[in-house]
Hints:
It is built from 17 helices and no strands. It has helices spanning 2-20, 22-42, 46-73, 77-104, 109-121, 134-139, 143-156, 163-176, 197-222, 231-240, 242-252, 258-274, 284-312, 318-340, 349-364, 380-395, 402-411. The radius of gyration is 23 Å and the shape is globular.
Amino acid sequence: MLMVGVMLGSIIFGYLSDRIGRKNIFVISVLLQGITGCGMAFTQEYWSFTFLRVLVGASTSGLYLAAYVIGLEFVSPKYRMVVGVIIQMFFSVGFLLTSGFAYVLHNNWRSFQLAITIPTLFYTTYYWFVPESVRWLLANGKQERAVKILQKVCRVNGVEISEKDIVDILECNIEKKPTIQADALPKASFFDLFKHPVILKRSIIIMLLWFVNSTAYYGLSWSTSNLGGNQYFVFNLAGMVEFPAYIFLLMTLNKWGRKINISGFLILAGLALLATLAVPKTNTWMVIFFAMMAKLAITASYGAVYVYTAEQFPTVVRNMGLGVGSFFARIGGIVAPYINNTSEIWINMPLVVYGGLALLVGVWSLVLPETLNRKLPDTIEDLIAMSEKKYKLVLKNEPATNGDANKDKDKH
């Protein structure tokens, strides 16, 4: 039910974030999480607890999305990947802190719930010193507020510039923008993701990528107590392995490409988890080693799938593609606890299920094209034409390559 809340929150708060602003949704989500999280600590019956659990999930989704978008919208495209990955690293910091609270307060779950919730309320102070996204303000005709924020940005960075100059720059930038924007593109619907074989294949594989990454990530995170050893130490290991995963991703995503990272890490996770079948039951730490290797690989793959998904779809259905992918990720999070429960039938069953899914989808995703430094299609017709052009080049046994790739890189 927590993951059902996350699913609803991503839809509802994602929409409201575009309507009333990222900062407002951030503060609303913080308050909602604080109130409902504390409420859970005092509930006396099941259904109230369950309802509050859904609201906590929804508020967590709204809080994370709003903070993530504010972070990305305050930097140039050059630094967005770095900022995005660093934000996810702090998700891992929270992962580690959870085990610390649990170790100290393991005898009373109500005190534990209060301990992990009350600090959330301190983030309401962000209202007074975290600015609204300038991009959102400009997109919604709130130029006066945007200019004041930009003046503060200039002061912090030691740049002297007048309010008039900022206004002139903004107005000049608006005038230089092409008049043919997304509104001029043909209207597309959700069903366009499945109409043509080229985009249908991409949609199916992207949905499976999100589903498997989410299922394995949350499943492994929530099953550490089933691996053996000290459960607090193993849970900490599951959080610590995320940091090298993100660092490696920062180093390779724009160097090696998206496909080799996502497919390679999924295949590695699948092999690591299936390798536990060959480990004797008495060798607990070898099982933990392979599980942690898989957690590292899944974290890296999950971190890259956001970028890869956005680049697989044409402009007209890009947001829909991301939305569908995220929806299937939430289904994966909902299913994960039930897969973990299969350990009652056979202790290795969850690891085998996650490993089999990761290996299968990792290999299948190799059929998707690489998108690093490639020109992205605007319409479904563009996507089909690009796909057919590639197919013809392969038939003629011509190198599709270096020349076209360099041209695409220049255009990009």
